[in-house]
Amino acid sequence: MPSIPRRTGILSAAVALAVLSAAAPAAARQATPAYFTMTDVTGERFVVQLTDPADIRHARDLVSGTTRDRPHVLGRIAKSAVPYNARWSYHLRPETVDFFDVAIEVCDATIPYVEDHLDEAGGAFLPGLVWCPWSSRLVNEVAAP
Q1: 125 near 116, Cβ under 8 Å?
Q2: Is residue 110 within 8 Å of residue 135, measured between CB atoms?
Q3: pTM of the shown model
Q4: Mean pLDDT for all residues in the chain
Q5: First to last CA, the chain
């Protein structure tokens, strides 16, 4: 039987996935986009665009060290490059980005592993294109492209 913290983490991940599936209309959550660099255990860098004002505030708090709550990035990938993240063949859809403490294993992968297995994403690998790199963390805010 999973421990209470683990069950709470699994429940948190399930709720986050449900939220991503039933996200508020994009127009209701839009703000001037902000861009943040995240890294993971590999040391690679990946830029995330945020459009939700609450998410932008939370990301800035993480970068400044004001908070340590929900330090990891979660969202649905899109299999296309974007100008602000041109090094990679995929990006996180801004309207799906959220933050988490603990998530289920099925959505965990490193930045380069997603790139190397992008053709498999959406099936058994990253079902629903939901990506939650467990070692992700924001390192800085970057200028808009």
Answers
A1: no
A2: yes
A3: 0.79
A4: 85
A5: 48
